[in-house]
Design goal:
The protein has 425 residues and is α/β, with parallel strands linked by helices. The chain has two domains: 262 residues, Rossmann fold, CATH 3.40.50.300; 114 residues. The protein contains 19 helices and 13 strands. The strands form two sheets. It has an eleven-stranded mixed beta sheet with strand order 2-1-13-10-9-3-8-7-4-6-5, sandwiched between helices. A hairpin with a 2-residue loop joins strand 1 and strand 2. Helix 2 runs parallel beside helix 3 and helix 3 packs across helix 18. The longest helix is centred in the middle third of the chain and has 20 residues. The protein is globular. The structure holds adenosine-5'-triphosphate and magnesium ion (MG). Magnesium ion binds next to helix 2. The site of magnesium ion has 3 residues, from helix 2.
Length: 425
C-alpha cells in the first residue's frame, strides 16, 4: 500500500513532501477553508494518486468540475475501472435503487437509511414535520415494497396505499410478522380518512421524486446499474457527479445520500471478510455537510476496521451541527485547515496549538495548517502548501469515458421508462 502526498512543507528553506500513510488514512481526514483556497484541488490530487496506485475510490462531487478533471487524467490501464454516475445523462439513466437488498440484514439497514434520508431532506432539525407515525408507515411500506422476487423501489411506496391489488400482491411474500401485522391489523383498522391524509403526506414527499423524470428514471429501476460490493472488491473508480445546476439541490442531496447509504451497506458486509481481504477503499465527499446521516457519523468512528478511508471537506466548520463538529474533532485523525473566517479560526486554533486564531486568518491561498495522523498518532500542528493540479489532461478522454460508461452502465431511456410505467401501473 503506497503513501500519497498531501502537500509540501517548507521549513528553514528546506522543502519536504507531506506523506499520508495508507493505514493512517482509515482514521479519516477533514479539511476546511474559504472558497478558492484550493480544497477541491487537494482532493483531486489525492484521488488521482489513489487511482494511479490502483486503489478503489468513490468521489462525490457537488459541482462536477472535479469529476471532469479526474476523467481527463485517468491513466490508460484504469480506464475500464471507471464507473461514472452522472444523473444529467438523461438518455442513458443509470439505476440506483435504495431498496435493493440481498439479505434481511441489508434490508433492515437500507430501510433505516431510507427513513434517515427523508428526515435529512424534509425535517433535519426534527421539528416533528416527519413524526413517528410517518416513520412507522414508511418502514412497513418500504419492507413491503421490497418483498417478492421482483423487488421494488421507493417510487412505488405511494402506490401501496392506493392500489389494494398491488398491496395484496406484495403481502403474500411478507415473512416478517411485524410487517404482516401492520397490514392485517393496523391498516385494516385505519379509517379511509386517516389513510388518505397519510397518503397525501407520502405523495407530498415522494411526489417530488416521482414527478421528476430524471429522478424517476434513476430511482425507479429495480436493479441498480452497478453493485457496490463489486466496486469495493474490484477497486473500482466510482465518480459521482451531482452538479446541482443540472438536477437541483434536493435531488442532488437525495442521490448523494443514497450512494453513501449503499456504499455503507457494502462496507458493513466486509465484517464477514477476513481482515486481509478487505482492500483499502477511499471515499471523497466534497461539500459533505448536506449528505450526512447518523449512520455515516458512526462510520467515522468504526470504518477503521473496514479499511475505508473517508475524506470530507466544506467551507465552514462552525456552521455544522454541533453533533457533527464533535464527531469530526473526536474521530478524524487528520485535520487540515486553510484560511477560514473568524468563528472557525477561533474554533480551530483550540485544536492547533501553538498556532493562534490569527494564523488561520492570515494564511495565504493554497497554504494550510495540518494535524496529521502519523503511525496511528496525531502530530502536532504544522504548516504546509498544497500541490498545484497534478499532471495534464488527455485531450478528449473525458468525453470518451463518459460515452463508454453510459453504454456500459446506463440503459436506453425508452426502455427504462417503459419498465417503470409497468411497475407503476
Ligand atoms: N496549490 C495550488 N497551486 C496553484 N493553483 C492552485 C493550487 N490549488 C488550487 N489551485 C487553483 O485554485 C483554484 C481554486 O481551487 P479549488 O477549486 O480547489 O478551491 P476550493 O477551496 O475547492 O474552492 P470552493 O470552496 O469554492 O469549492 C483552482 O483554479 C485551482 O486550480
Ligand atoms: Mg471546491
Amino acid at each position: 500500500m503506497e503513501n500519497i502526498i498531501i502537500g509540501k512543507n517548507e521549513y528553514r528553506g528546506k522543502t519536504t513532501q507531506i506523506p499520508y500513510q495508507a493505514a493512517d488514512r482509515f482514521r479519516h481526514m477533514y479539511m476546511v477553508g474559504k472558497t478558492g483556497v484550493g480544497k477541491s484541488t487537494v482532493f483531486q490530487n489525492m484521488a488521482l494518486q489513489d487511482i494511479i496506485n490502483n486503489n478503489g475510490i468513490c468521489f462525490i462531487d457537488p459541482h462536477g468540475e472535479s469529476i471532469d478533471w479526474l476523467l481527463a487524467r485517468i491513466p490508460k490501464n484504469r480506464l475500464e475501472d471507471v464507473i461514472l454516475f452522472d444523473p444529467s445523462d438523461t438518455e442513458h439513466p443509470l439505476g440506483l435503487n435504495l431498496l435493493e437488498a440481498k439479505d434481511p440484514r441489508e434490508q433492515d439497514f437500507l430501510v433505516a437509511e431510507c427513513i434517515e434520508i427523508f428526515y435529512q431532506l424534509f425535517d433535519p432539525e426534527r421539528t416533528g414535520m416527519i413524526g413517528p407515525q410517518f416513520e412507522h408507515w414508511l418502514r412497513n411500506a418500504a419492507m413491503t415494497v421490497m418483498a417478492g422476487p421482483e423487488g421494488g423501489s421507493i417510487i412505488e411506496i405511494s402506490k401501496l396505499f392506493m392500489d389494494r391489488r398491488f398491496e395484496l400482491s406484495k403481502r403474500k411474500y411478507l415473512k416478517e410478522p411485524m410487517v404482516l401485522e401492520f397490514w392485517t391489523k393496523q391498516m385494516a383498522r385505519t379509517s379511509d380518512f386517516h389513510k388518505s391524509e397519510m397518503l397525501n403526506y407520502f405523495v407530498s414527499k415522494f411526489g417530488h421524486f416521482m414527478n421528476n423524470t430524471i429522478m424517476r428514471n434513476i430511482l425507479g429501476q429495480h436493479h441498480s446499474s452497478f453493485n457496490f460490493e463489486q466496486v469495493l472488491a474490484h477497486d473500482k473508480i466510482l465518480l459521482v457527479n451531482l452538479s446541482k445546476g443540472k438536477i437541483g439541490d434536493l435531488n442532488a442531496r437525495m442521490l448523494g445520500m443514497i450512494v453513501i447509504a449503499k456504499l455503507e451497506a457494502a462496507i458493513l458486509k466486509r465484517a464477514f471478510l477476513e481482515p486481509g481481504k478487505r482492500l483499502p477503499f477511499y471515499l471523497y465527499v466534497d461539500e459533505f455537510q448536506n449528505l450526512i446521516t447518523d449512520s455515516f457519523l458512526s462510520m467515522l468512528s468504526e470504518s477503521r476496521k473496514y479499511a475505508l478511508g473517508i475524506h470530507l471537506t466544506n467551507q465552514y466548520f462552525a456552521q455544522l451541527p454541533q453533533k457533527l463538529q464533535d464527531a469530526i474533532i473526536g474521530n478524524v485523525g487528520t485535520i487540515l485547515g486553510f484560511e477560514v473566517g473568524v468563528d472557525d479560526a477561533e474554533r480551530l486554533a483550540r485544536e492547533f496549538e501553538p498556532f493562534s486564531k490569527e494564523s488561520f486568518l492570515n494564511l495565504p491561498r493554497f497554504n494550510f495548517l495540518i494535524k496529521l495522523m502519523i503511525g496511528g498518532k496525531t502530530s502536532r500542528a504544522f504548516s504546509g502548501v498544497s500541490l498545484p493540479p497534478l499532471s495534464s489532461a488527455v485531450p478528449a478522454q473525458a468525453g470518451k469515458i463518459t460515452t463508454l460508461c453510459s453504454l456500459a452502465y446506463g440503459s436506453p431511456k425508452p426502455l427504462v421508462e417503459e419498465q417503470i410505467k409497468r411497475y407503476l401501473r
